[in-house]
Amino acid sequence: MNRLIPIALVAATAVAGGAYWFAQPTQSALAQNTLTLDAIENVQLVASDEASANSDEVVEMVMGAEDAPITMIEYASFTCPHCASFHENVFKDLKANYIDTGKVKFIFRDVYFDRFGLWAAMVARCGGQERFFGITDLLMESQSEWSRAGDPVAIADALRKTGRLAGLEDDQLQACLQNEDKAKALIAWYQENASADDISGTPTLIINGDKHSNMSYRELSKLLDEKLEG
C-alpha cells in the first residue's frame, strides 16, 4: 500500500447543506493508491464523554450469513477513488462468490476524510439497512460525477439526486442531511472504530481480525480460500 501525505481532518462548527463541513484532501493525496488518516484525534465535534453514547446509536451495515466462517470488515470512504475502484473491481466478485454463498459475513464501515464523504454516508444510511448497500453501489459507481459536481451546493444536490434514484423522497433526504445528532454519532463511531483497528488508509480490510491493505480480487480470493481451507 502506497502511503500518502497525512491528511488533517479538522471539523468546523458550521453546518452547510445539512451536514458538517471538513477540510478537503489535497489533489496529490487523491492521486495515490490509498487515502490515509492519521489525525483522528483532530475531529472534535463531540466531547469524549458524549462519544460512546452517540456512537451506540449507529447501526452496523452487514451483508451475508451471520454464521459465516469468515468475517470481513471494509473501512472505506465514499470520496476515496481507490475505494470506488475496489467496489467495482473486487467487491462485486467477492459478493457473488463469497458473501452470497455464505462464506463471508461482510461489514462496511464509513471513513470520513472530508465533508462530502460524510454527506454521502448520511444519504446512504437514509434508506436504512435494507437500502444501504444499493445506495452505496450507486454512490461508488457515480463517485467521479457527484464528487466533482462543482461547489458544495452542487455536490449536495448531486447526492440528493442519487438518493432519489434509489427511491428516497426529497423530504426524507433533507431530514437525513440536516440531522446534526446523526452526524455527531457517525463521527464518534468512525473515531472509535478507526482508533480501535488502527486504520491508517482506505480501503482497509479486517479479515478474521487480521488487517490487510488494498488488493486485487485474485489476491483476496487466494487469501480467503486459504482461510477457508485452514
Automatic annotation (TrEMBL):
Residues 59-226 form the Thioredoxin-like fold domain. GO terms for molecular function: isomerase activity; oxidoreductase activity. Keywords: Disulfide bond, Isomerase, Oxidoreductase, Redox-active center, Signal. Gene3D superfamilies: Glutaredoxin. Pfam families: Thioredoxin_4 (PF13462). PANTHER family: DISULFIDE BOND FORMATION PROTEIN D, GLUTATHIONE S-TRANSFERASE KAPPA. This is Protein-disulfide isomerase. It comes from Shimia abyssi.
